[in-house]
Amino acid sequence: MAAFRTFLRSGHAPTLGAAFLYFAFSCCIWVLNGALAPFISEAYQLTAAQKGLMLSIPIMAGALMRFPLGVLSQYIGRKNATLVEMALIAVAMGYGFFMVKGYDDLLAMGVLLGIAGASFGVALSLGSGWYPPKYKGLAMGLVGAGNVGTAVSVLVAPPLAQWLGWQTVYAVAGAAILVPMLVMIVFAKEPPDVDSHAGLRSHMACLFEKDGWAFSLIYAVTFGGFIGLITFLPTYYYDQFGVSKVQAGQLTMLAAFMGAAVRVMGGWISDRWGGVNTLTVVLVAVTVTLLLVGLAGGSLVATTLLLIACFAALGAGNGALFQLVPLRWPAATAVAGSMIGEVGALGGGLVPNLMGLSKQYAGTYFWGFAIFAALSLLMLGVMRVMQIRWTRTWAERGGRARVPAAGTASSAASAPPHGRAYEAR
Fold first, then answer.
1. What SS3 state is found at 365?
2. How far is residue 235's CA from residue 231's CA, in Å, rounded to a whole number?
3. I need a surface site. Which of 124, 140, 211, 351 has the fewest CB within 10 A?
Protein backbone atom coordinates (compact mmCIF):
# COMPACT_ATOMS: atom_id res chain seq x y z
CA MET A 1 0.00 0.00 0.00
CA ALA A 2 2.87 2.37 0.82
CA ALA A 3 4.36 1.70 -2.62
CA PHE A 4 1.04 2.52 -4.26
CA ARG A 5 0.79 5.79 -2.32
CA THR A 6 4.30 6.62 -3.49
CA PHE A 7 3.20 5.94 -7.06
CA LEU A 8 0.13 8.19 -6.71
CA ARG A 9 2.19 11.03 -5.22
CA SER A 10 4.68 10.84 -8.08
CA GLY A 11 2.03 12.17 -10.50
CA HIS A 12 -1.42 13.78 -10.46
CA ALA A 13 -3.95 11.28 -9.09
CA PRO A 14 -7.12 13.31 -9.89
CA THR A 15 -6.18 13.39 -13.58
CA LEU A 16 -5.49 9.65 -13.47
CA GLY A 17 -8.95 9.05 -11.99
CA ALA A 18 -10.69 11.35 -14.47
CA ALA A 19 -8.96 9.60 -17.39
CA PHE A 20 -10.02 6.18 -16.06
CA LEU A 21 -13.66 7.27 -15.72
CA TYR A 22 -13.68 8.82 -19.19
CA PHE A 23 -12.24 5.70 -20.76
CA ALA A 24 -14.59 3.40 -18.82
CA PHE A 25 -17.71 5.26 -19.96
CA SER A 26 -16.39 5.42 -23.53
CA CYS A 27 -15.77 1.66 -23.61
CA CYS A 28 -19.22 1.03 -22.19
CA ILE A 29 -20.87 2.99 -24.98
CA TRP A 30 -18.55 1.71 -27.73
CA VAL A 31 -19.75 -1.91 -27.36
CA LEU A 32 -23.46 -1.14 -26.86
CA ASN A 33 -24.50 -2.78 -30.12
CA GLY A 34 -22.66 -5.91 -29.08
CA ALA A 35 -24.42 -5.95 -25.71
CA LEU A 36 -27.78 -5.39 -27.41
CA ALA A 37 -27.10 -7.72 -30.35
CA PRO A 38 -29.49 -10.55 -29.32
CA PHE A 39 -32.32 -7.99 -29.05
CA ILE A 40 -31.41 -6.26 -32.31
CA SER A 41 -30.99 -9.54 -34.18
CA GLU A 42 -34.40 -10.71 -33.04
CA ALA A 43 -36.02 -7.39 -34.00
CA TYR A 44 -34.61 -7.39 -37.54
CA GLN A 45 -34.09 -11.16 -38.15
CA LEU A 46 -30.42 -10.78 -39.06
CA THR A 47 -28.29 -13.48 -40.69
CA ALA A 48 -24.95 -14.53 -39.16
CA ALA A 49 -23.04 -12.43 -41.72
CA GLN A 50 -25.26 -9.39 -41.06
CA LYS A 51 -24.63 -9.71 -37.34
CA GLY A 52 -20.89 -9.84 -37.95
CA LEU A 53 -20.98 -6.70 -40.11
CA MET A 54 -23.18 -4.80 -37.65
CA LEU A 55 -20.84 -5.64 -34.78
CA SER A 56 -17.62 -4.88 -36.65
CA ILE A 57 -18.55 -1.38 -37.80
CA PRO A 58 -18.35 0.34 -34.37
CA ILE A 59 -14.94 -1.26 -33.80
CA MET A 60 -13.53 -0.21 -37.16
CA ALA A 61 -15.06 3.27 -36.98
CA GLY A 62 -13.59 3.78 -33.52
CA ALA A 63 -10.24 2.60 -34.80
CA LEU A 64 -10.22 5.07 -37.69
CA MET A 65 -11.13 7.96 -35.38
CA ARG A 66 -8.39 7.29 -32.83
CA PHE A 67 -5.44 8.73 -34.69
CA PRO A 68 -7.16 12.01 -35.71
CA LEU A 69 -8.26 12.52 -32.10
CA GLY A 70 -4.71 11.86 -30.94
CA VAL A 71 -3.32 14.45 -33.36
CA LEU A 72 -6.01 16.94 -32.32
CA SER A 73 -5.08 16.43 -28.67
CA GLN A 74 -1.52 17.49 -29.39
CA TYR A 75 -2.80 20.91 -30.46
CA ILE A 76 -5.84 21.67 -28.27
CA GLY A 77 -4.72 19.56 -25.29
CA ARG A 78 -5.79 16.13 -24.21
CA LYS A 79 -8.30 17.37 -21.66
CA ASN A 80 -10.05 19.56 -24.24
CA ALA A 81 -10.03 16.71 -26.76
CA THR A 82 -11.84 14.44 -24.30
CA LEU A 83 -14.54 17.06 -23.74
CA VAL A 84 -15.09 17.52 -27.48
CA GLU A 85 -15.37 13.76 -27.93
CA MET A 86 -17.81 13.26 -25.06
CA ALA A 87 -20.07 16.02 -26.39
CA LEU A 88 -20.14 14.23 -29.76
CA ILE A 89 -20.96 10.93 -28.02
CA ALA A 90 -24.01 12.54 -26.41
CA VAL A 91 -25.21 13.74 -29.83
CA ALA A 92 -24.63 10.26 -31.31
CA MET A 93 -26.76 8.66 -28.59
CA GLY A 94 -29.57 11.04 -29.54
CA TYR A 95 -29.38 9.74 -33.10
CA GLY A 96 -29.63 6.16 -31.84
CA PHE A 97 -32.71 6.89 -29.77
CA PHE A 98 -34.63 8.99 -32.30
CA MET A 99 -33.44 7.88 -35.76
CA VAL A 100 -32.69 4.12 -35.85
CA LYS A 101 -35.58 2.47 -37.72
CA GLY A 102 -33.93 -0.39 -39.65
CA TYR A 103 -30.74 -2.31 -40.47
CA ASP A 104 -29.19 0.48 -42.54
CA ASP A 105 -29.77 2.90 -39.68
CA LEU A 106 -28.06 0.41 -37.37
CA LEU A 107 -24.97 0.44 -39.58
CA ALA A 108 -24.94 4.25 -39.44
CA MET A 109 -25.33 4.06 -35.67
CA GLY A 110 -22.33 1.76 -35.60
CA VAL A 111 -20.23 4.49 -37.17
CA LEU A 112 -21.41 6.96 -34.52
CA LEU A 113 -20.64 4.49 -31.73
CA GLY A 114 -17.11 4.57 -33.08
CA ILE A 115 -16.76 8.08 -31.65
CA ALA A 116 -16.62 6.49 -28.19
CA GLY A 117 -13.98 4.06 -29.39
CA ALA A 118 -11.63 6.91 -30.31
CA SER A 119 -10.89 7.65 -26.66
CA PHE A 120 -8.10 5.16 -26.09
CA GLY A 121 -4.80 6.88 -26.90
CA VAL A 122 -5.85 10.23 -25.44
CA ALA A 123 -7.14 8.66 -22.21
CA LEU A 124 -3.95 6.70 -21.58
CA SER A 125 -1.67 9.61 -22.40
CA LEU A 126 -3.70 12.04 -20.28
CA GLY A 127 -3.74 9.74 -17.26
CA SER A 128 -0.07 8.73 -17.42
CA GLY A 129 1.35 12.06 -18.58
CA TRP A 130 2.14 13.27 -15.05
CA TYR A 131 4.03 10.09 -14.09
CA PRO A 132 7.77 9.33 -14.47
CA PRO A 133 8.96 6.58 -16.85
CA LYS A 134 9.35 3.93 -14.13
CA TYR A 135 5.62 4.19 -13.34
CA LYS A 136 4.27 4.57 -16.89
CA GLY A 137 3.25 0.92 -17.18
CA LEU A 138 1.25 1.01 -13.95
CA ALA A 139 -0.36 4.37 -14.76
CA MET A 140 -1.36 3.24 -18.24
CA GLY A 141 -2.57 -0.06 -16.85
CA LEU A 142 -4.83 1.72 -14.36
CA VAL A 143 -6.36 3.96 -17.02
CA GLY A 144 -6.56 1.05 -19.45
CA ALA A 145 -8.52 -0.85 -16.82
CA GLY A 146 -11.33 1.41 -17.98
CA ASN A 147 -11.92 -1.49 -20.35
CA VAL A 148 -14.09 -2.68 -17.47
CA GLY A 149 -16.69 -0.44 -19.07
CA THR A 150 -17.20 -3.19 -21.62
CA ALA A 151 -18.11 -5.58 -18.80
CA VAL A 152 -20.54 -3.02 -17.37
CA SER A 153 -22.13 -2.64 -20.79
CA VAL A 154 -22.79 -6.33 -21.39
CA LEU A 155 -24.02 -6.72 -17.79
CA VAL A 156 -26.30 -3.66 -17.55
CA ALA A 157 -27.54 -3.08 -21.12
CA PRO A 158 -29.50 -6.36 -21.58
CA PRO A 159 -31.65 -5.95 -18.43
CA LEU A 160 -32.25 -2.30 -19.34
CA ALA A 161 -33.25 -3.35 -22.86
CA GLN A 162 -35.62 -5.96 -21.48
CA TRP A 163 -37.18 -3.37 -19.17
CA LEU A 164 -37.23 -0.19 -21.29
CA GLY A 165 -36.68 -1.45 -24.84
CA TRP A 166 -33.30 -1.78 -26.51
CA GLN A 167 -33.41 1.59 -28.27
CA THR A 168 -34.00 3.46 -25.01
CA VAL A 169 -30.59 2.22 -23.82
CA TYR A 170 -29.01 4.75 -26.20
CA ALA A 171 -30.83 7.58 -24.39
CA VAL A 172 -29.65 6.30 -21.00
CA ALA A 173 -26.07 6.19 -22.30
CA GLY A 174 -26.34 9.73 -23.64
CA ALA A 175 -27.36 11.02 -20.22
CA ALA A 176 -24.69 8.96 -18.43
CA ILE A 177 -21.80 10.49 -20.43
CA LEU A 178 -22.44 13.78 -18.58
CA VAL A 179 -20.86 12.24 -15.45
CA PRO A 180 -17.31 11.79 -16.82
CA MET A 181 -17.59 15.17 -18.58
CA LEU A 182 -18.19 16.91 -15.27
CA VAL A 183 -15.40 14.98 -13.54
CA MET A 184 -12.99 15.83 -16.37
CA ILE A 185 -13.82 19.54 -16.18
CA VAL A 186 -13.42 19.75 -12.39
CA PHE A 187 -10.51 17.42 -11.61
CA ALA A 188 -8.24 16.86 -14.64
CA LYS A 189 -5.13 18.93 -15.44
CA GLU A 190 -3.28 18.89 -18.74
CA PRO A 191 0.07 17.04 -18.33
CA PRO A 192 3.31 18.84 -19.21
CA ASP A 193 4.88 15.98 -21.19
CA VAL A 194 4.35 17.28 -24.75
CA ASP A 195 6.90 19.26 -26.74
CA SER A 196 4.83 22.27 -27.81
CA HIS A 197 7.44 23.28 -30.40
CA ALA A 198 7.35 19.99 -32.27
CA GLY A 199 5.74 19.99 -35.69
CA LEU A 200 3.13 17.63 -37.09
CA ARG A 201 5.85 15.49 -38.69
CA SER A 202 7.51 14.98 -35.30
CA HIS A 203 4.26 14.01 -33.65
CA MET A 204 3.46 11.60 -36.49
CA ALA A 205 6.93 10.02 -36.59
CA CYS A 206 5.57 6.70 -35.36
CA LEU A 207 3.71 6.34 -38.67
CA PHE A 208 6.98 6.12 -40.55
CA GLU A 209 8.83 3.68 -38.30
CA LYS A 210 8.88 -0.11 -38.19
CA ASP A 211 8.45 -0.08 -34.43
CA GLY A 212 5.10 1.71 -34.73
CA TRP A 213 3.76 -0.87 -37.14
CA ALA A 214 5.14 -3.80 -35.13
CA PHE A 215 3.43 -2.50 -32.00
CA SER A 216 0.23 -1.93 -33.96
CA LEU A 217 0.09 -5.47 -35.32
CA ILE A 218 0.75 -7.00 -31.91
CA TYR A 219 -1.97 -4.81 -30.44
CA ALA A 220 -4.31 -5.97 -33.20
CA VAL A 221 -4.15 -9.36 -31.47
CA THR A 222 -4.22 -8.28 -27.80
CA PHE A 223 -6.68 -5.38 -27.86
CA GLY A 224 -8.27 -6.40 -31.16
CA GLY A 225 -9.02 -9.81 -29.70
CA PHE A 226 -10.31 -8.24 -26.49
CA ILE A 227 -12.76 -5.77 -28.02
CA GLY A 228 -13.73 -8.01 -30.95
CA LEU A 229 -14.57 -10.98 -28.77
CA ILE A 230 -16.46 -8.90 -26.20
CA THR A 231 -18.58 -7.46 -28.99
CA PHE A 232 -19.34 -10.90 -30.42
CA LEU A 233 -19.63 -13.07 -27.30
CA PRO A 234 -23.24 -12.16 -26.38
CA THR A 235 -24.26 -13.33 -29.86
CA TYR A 236 -22.02 -16.41 -29.59
CA TYR A 237 -23.44 -17.48 -26.24
CA TYR A 238 -27.02 -16.81 -27.35
CA ASP A 239 -26.69 -18.71 -30.66
CA GLN A 240 -24.29 -21.48 -29.65
CA PHE A 241 -25.66 -22.46 -26.24
CA GLY A 242 -29.25 -21.16 -26.30
CA VAL A 243 -28.93 -19.13 -23.10
CA SER A 244 -31.19 -16.12 -22.50
CA LYS A 245 -30.22 -12.64 -23.72
CA VAL A 246 -29.50 -11.49 -20.17
CA GLN A 247 -27.48 -14.63 -19.37
CA ALA A 248 -25.44 -14.12 -22.54
CA GLY A 249 -24.47 -10.68 -21.25
CA GLN A 250 -23.64 -12.03 -17.79
CA LEU A 251 -21.37 -14.74 -19.18
CA THR A 252 -19.61 -12.23 -21.41
CA MET A 253 -19.14 -9.96 -18.40
CA LEU A 254 -17.06 -12.62 -16.62
CA ALA A 255 -14.49 -12.63 -19.40
CA ALA A 256 -14.61 -8.87 -19.98
CA PHE A 257 -14.09 -8.07 -16.30
CA MET A 258 -11.12 -10.43 -16.13
CA GLY A 259 -9.49 -8.79 -19.15
CA ALA A 260 -9.95 -5.30 -17.75
CA ALA A 261 -8.73 -6.17 -14.26
CA VAL A 262 -5.62 -8.02 -15.41
CA ARG A 263 -4.62 -5.12 -17.65
CA VAL A 264 -3.41 -3.27 -14.54
CA MET A 265 -1.39 -6.30 -13.50
CA GLY A 266 0.05 -6.55 -17.00
CA GLY A 267 1.39 -3.00 -16.77
CA TRP A 268 2.73 -3.58 -13.24
CA ILE A 269 4.44 -6.85 -14.16
CA SER A 270 5.92 -5.28 -17.30
CA ASP A 271 7.44 -2.41 -15.30
CA ARG A 272 9.38 -5.05 -13.35
CA TRP A 273 9.79 -7.99 -15.73
CA GLY A 274 9.66 -6.20 -19.06
CA GLY A 275 6.96 -5.73 -21.68
CA VAL A 276 8.63 -8.05 -24.19
CA ASN A 277 8.88 -10.91 -21.69
CA THR A 278 5.26 -10.43 -20.64
CA LEU A 279 4.00 -10.30 -24.22
CA THR A 280 5.82 -13.53 -25.07
CA VAL A 281 3.83 -15.42 -22.42
CA VAL A 282 0.64 -13.60 -23.41
CA LEU A 283 0.76 -14.47 -27.10
CA VAL A 284 1.45 -18.14 -26.41
CA ALA A 285 -1.49 -18.26 -23.97
CA VAL A 286 -3.83 -16.52 -26.41
CA THR A 287 -2.94 -18.95 -29.21
CA VAL A 288 -3.60 -22.01 -27.08
CA THR A 289 -6.80 -20.82 -25.40
CA LEU A 290 -8.43 -19.61 -28.63
CA LEU A 291 -7.85 -22.97 -30.28
CA LEU A 292 -9.30 -24.75 -27.26
CA VAL A 293 -12.35 -22.44 -27.21
CA GLY A 294 -13.00 -23.34 -30.83
CA LEU A 295 -12.88 -27.02 -29.95
CA ALA A 296 -15.05 -26.66 -26.82
CA GLY A 297 -18.19 -25.48 -28.59
CA GLY A 298 -20.27 -28.24 -27.00
CA SER A 299 -19.54 -27.29 -23.38
CA LEU A 300 -20.75 -24.03 -21.87
CA VAL A 301 -18.63 -24.46 -18.74
CA ALA A 302 -15.40 -25.27 -20.60
CA THR A 303 -15.96 -22.42 -23.06
CA THR A 304 -16.51 -19.91 -20.25
CA LEU A 305 -13.44 -21.00 -18.29
CA LEU A 306 -11.24 -20.95 -21.37
CA LEU A 307 -12.53 -17.52 -22.37
CA ILE A 308 -11.77 -16.17 -18.90
CA ALA A 309 -8.20 -17.47 -19.25
CA CYS A 310 -7.93 -16.04 -22.76
CA PHE A 311 -9.17 -12.63 -21.63
CA ALA A 312 -6.75 -12.63 -18.70
CA ALA A 313 -3.93 -13.06 -21.22
CA LEU A 314 -5.35 -10.43 -23.58
CA GLY A 315 -5.72 -7.93 -20.73
CA ALA A 316 -2.17 -8.51 -19.53
CA GLY A 317 -0.96 -8.12 -23.10
CA ASN A 318 -2.69 -4.76 -23.47
CA GLY A 319 -1.00 -3.49 -20.32
CA ALA A 320 2.36 -4.91 -21.36
CA LEU A 321 2.38 -3.32 -24.79
CA PHE A 322 1.49 0.09 -23.43
CA GLN A 323 4.29 -0.15 -20.91
CA LEU A 324 6.57 -0.06 -23.96
CA VAL A 325 4.91 2.78 -25.90
CA PRO A 326 5.94 5.72 -23.66
CA LEU A 327 9.48 4.34 -23.52
CA ARG A 328 9.68 4.42 -27.30
CA TRP A 329 7.82 7.73 -27.89
CA PRO A 330 8.12 9.68 -24.61
CA ALA A 331 7.10 13.11 -26.01
CA ALA A 332 4.35 11.96 -28.40
CA THR A 333 2.65 9.20 -26.45
CA ALA A 334 -0.88 10.40 -27.27
CA VAL A 335 -0.31 10.27 -31.03
CA ALA A 336 1.69 7.04 -30.93
CA GLY A 337 -0.89 5.43 -28.65
CA SER A 338 -3.72 6.55 -30.88
CA MET A 339 -2.04 5.23 -34.02
CA ILE A 340 -1.28 1.88 -32.38
CA GLY A 341 -4.76 1.74 -30.91
CA GLU A 342 -6.23 2.49 -34.32
CA VAL A 343 -4.62 -0.49 -36.03
CA GLY A 344 -5.25 -2.64 -32.96
CA ALA A 345 -8.95 -1.88 -32.97
CA LEU A 346 -9.11 -2.55 -36.70
CA GLY A 347 -7.88 -6.04 -35.81
CA GLY A 348 -10.85 -6.28 -33.47
CA GLY A 349 -13.16 -5.48 -36.36
CA LEU A 350 -12.00 -8.71 -38.02
CA VAL A 351 -13.29 -10.89 -35.19
CA PRO A 352 -17.09 -10.49 -35.59
CA ASN A 353 -16.75 -10.78 -39.38
CA LEU A 354 -14.59 -13.90 -39.12
CA MET A 355 -17.05 -15.48 -36.72
CA GLY A 356 -20.11 -14.59 -38.76
CA LEU A 357 -18.60 -15.79 -42.04
CA SER A 358 -17.27 -18.97 -40.43
CA LYS A 359 -20.70 -19.83 -39.08
CA GLN A 360 -22.60 -18.93 -42.24
CA TYR A 361 -20.34 -20.73 -44.73
CA ALA A 362 -18.67 -23.49 -42.68
CA GLY A 363 -21.51 -24.15 -40.23
CA THR A 364 -19.21 -23.70 -37.22
CA TYR A 365 -17.48 -20.88 -35.33
CA PHE A 366 -14.27 -22.93 -35.02
CA TRP A 367 -12.48 -21.42 -38.01
CA GLY A 368 -12.99 -17.89 -36.70
CA PHE A 369 -11.22 -18.82 -33.47
CA ALA A 370 -8.52 -20.79 -35.32
CA ILE A 371 -7.62 -17.96 -37.72
CA PHE A 372 -7.25 -15.46 -34.89
CA ALA A 373 -5.10 -17.96 -32.96
CA ALA A 374 -2.83 -18.26 -35.99
CA LEU A 375 -2.49 -14.46 -36.11
CA SER A 376 -1.44 -14.46 -32.46
CA LEU A 377 1.30 -16.99 -33.17
CA LEU A 378 2.48 -14.94 -36.16
CA MET A 379 2.74 -11.78 -34.04
CA LEU A 380 4.82 -13.67 -31.48
CA GLY A 381 7.36 -14.36 -34.21
CA VAL A 382 7.34 -10.72 -35.34
CA MET A 383 7.96 -9.45 -31.81
CA ARG A 384 10.78 -11.88 -31.08
CA VAL A 385 12.61 -10.65 -34.18
CA MET A 386 12.00 -6.94 -33.48
CA GLN A 387 12.91 -7.05 -29.79
CA ILE A 388 16.57 -7.70 -30.63
CA ARG A 389 16.89 -4.11 -31.86
CA TRP A 390 14.57 -2.65 -29.21
CA THR A 391 16.80 -3.85 -26.38
CA ARG A 392 19.88 -2.40 -28.09
CA THR A 393 18.43 1.09 -28.46
CA TRP A 394 15.61 2.29 -26.19
CA ALA A 395 14.78 -0.52 -23.73
CA GLU A 396 16.57 -2.77 -21.31
CA ARG A 397 16.64 -6.53 -21.91
CA GLY A 398 13.14 -7.97 -21.71
CA GLY A 399 11.54 -4.58 -22.36
CA ARG A 400 12.02 -2.80 -19.03
CA ALA A 401 12.59 0.95 -18.76
CA ARG A 402 16.15 2.17 -18.64
CA VAL A 403 17.21 4.55 -15.88
CA PRO A 404 18.64 7.98 -16.78
CA ALA A 405 22.39 8.19 -17.02
CA ALA A 406 24.10 10.50 -14.55
CA GLY A 407 23.52 14.13 -15.37
CA THR A 408 20.66 13.59 -17.80
CA ALA A 409 17.04 14.67 -17.47
CA SER A 410 14.69 11.99 -16.25
CA SER A 411 11.38 13.41 -17.36
CA ALA A 412 9.44 11.78 -20.14
CA ALA A 413 9.32 15.05 -22.03
CA SER A 414 13.10 15.33 -22.20
CA ALA A 415 13.87 11.71 -22.98
CA PRO A 416 15.16 11.03 -26.50
CA PRO A 417 13.11 8.54 -28.50
CA HIS A 418 15.91 6.06 -29.05
CA GLY A 419 17.21 6.03 -25.49
CA ARG A 420 20.70 7.50 -26.18
CA ALA A 421 20.68 9.30 -22.81
CA TYR A 422 20.10 6.10 -20.94
CA GLU A 423 22.21 3.36 -19.53
CA ALA A 424 21.09 -0.14 -18.63
CA ARG A 425 20.49 -1.05 -15.05
1. coil
2. 8
3. 211
